[in-house]
Specification:
Length: 101
């Protein structure tokens, strides 16, 4: 107890932490997971929400992770990386066009 307030001592479980094998812990379309965060870094215009996908869905910035994030073999495939880079460049180009219009 500190200053009249009780602190919770139970462990905090987070859906944002990958498992020790590098595979993602949670597949959810409601809760933002590590896979959603990965998508945010691959395609920077998506998945801004910290905990839930609601505001991204409302704002049109939600992008559901695909097997490319969940499947270890696909996640480590250089052809997939090239496709993701190309997709990211395409999204960037569309964003630049919108800015100039």
């Amino acid at each position: 107890m500190c200053g009249g307030h009780h602190f919770h001592t139970s462990p905090h479980i987070s859906p944002f932490v990958p498992t020790s094998s590098g595979n993602y812990f949670l597949r959810s379309s409601v809760i933002n997971s590590s896979a959603h965060h990965t998508v945010h870094h691959l395609y920077f215009n998506y998945n801004y929400g910290q905990y839930f996908t609601l505001w991204d869905r409302i704002g049109g910035s939600h992008r559901q992770p695909t097997d490319e994030q969940y499947n270890t073999e696909l996640r480590n495939d250089r052809k997939i990386w090239q496709k993701q880079a190309k997709d990211s460049d395409s999204i960037d180009a569309k964003t630049e066009v919108k800015k100039t219009n």
